[in-house]
Design a protein that fits this description.
Length: 212
């Protein structure tokens, strides 16, 4: 256990969802909601660092970690949002080529990257004195009206489950929470979560438990 006076380090890594794209200016994101819930539950201050970019893919997250762009030295908790842009990029290519191999290849690369990312994060966090938590937020479907989209989102999520393994790792399954509630939980761009959607992501993260 960490000493009572110690603060907890929380690093949020990922894409535009982690950045809070789609919410109103100064509105809380899932990172803010989750931080507050953690502080209430563990009764310790949580210090947040955010490493995220709009459009970031799993390949880019892997590159950040490989180049030591992300400082995990004081981190006990990591959340990751990644994979959505891998799927979106592949879907755009599929719309042009109509070749399933485009989606299959993106799926395989996403899984390879996710396995590497989770392994890298696990090794880095295991070096800390206390326990640690890695939480992977899986994908919801922002384009449910497109016939093949649900199938491929589920395929990506199955691979995220398969590749996100380890004693420190749990997957926050947001897919069923957003399913059928897209109008309520997505911003006006119909892609990114609104503030309500971010609150729901935080709720799912909390349901994965606190293992510090």
């Amino acid at each position: 256990m960490l000493a009572c006076h110690s603060a907890i380090g929380y690093t949020a890594i990922g894409d535009s969802i982690t950045l809070g794209t789609g919410t109103m200016l100064f509105s809380p994101t899932f990172v803010d909601f989750y931080k507050n819930e953690l502080q209430c539950s563990i009764r310790k201050k949580v210090n947040v660092s955010v490493y995220a970019e709009n459009g970031a893919t799993t390949s880019e997250v892997k590159k950040w970690l490989a180049c030591s762009k992300i400082d995990l030295g004081q981190t006990e908790i990591v959340t990751l949002t990644a994979g959505g842009n891998d799927l979106i990029d592949a879907a755009e290519s599929y719309a042009v080529t109509k070749k399933d191999t485009v989606l299959d290849d993106a799926l395989k690369l996403c899984c390879q990257n996710m396995s590497w990312i989770v392994s890298n994060l696990s090794k880095a966090l295991k070096q800390s004195d206390g326990k640690a938590m890695i939480r992977i937020v899986n994908l919801y479907n922002p384009i449910p009206t497109i016939p093949f989209s649900d199938y491929w989102v589920k395929q990506f999520n199955r691979h995220i489950d398969k590749c996100s393994t380890g004693e420190l790792v749990r997957v926050a399954n947001v897919f069923p929470v957003f399913k059928g509630r897209e109008k309520q939980l997505l911003a006006s761009d119909c892609i990114h979560p609104n503030t309500h959607g971010h609150k729901e992501i935080s709720n799912v993260l909390m349901k994965t438990g606190i293992t510090l």
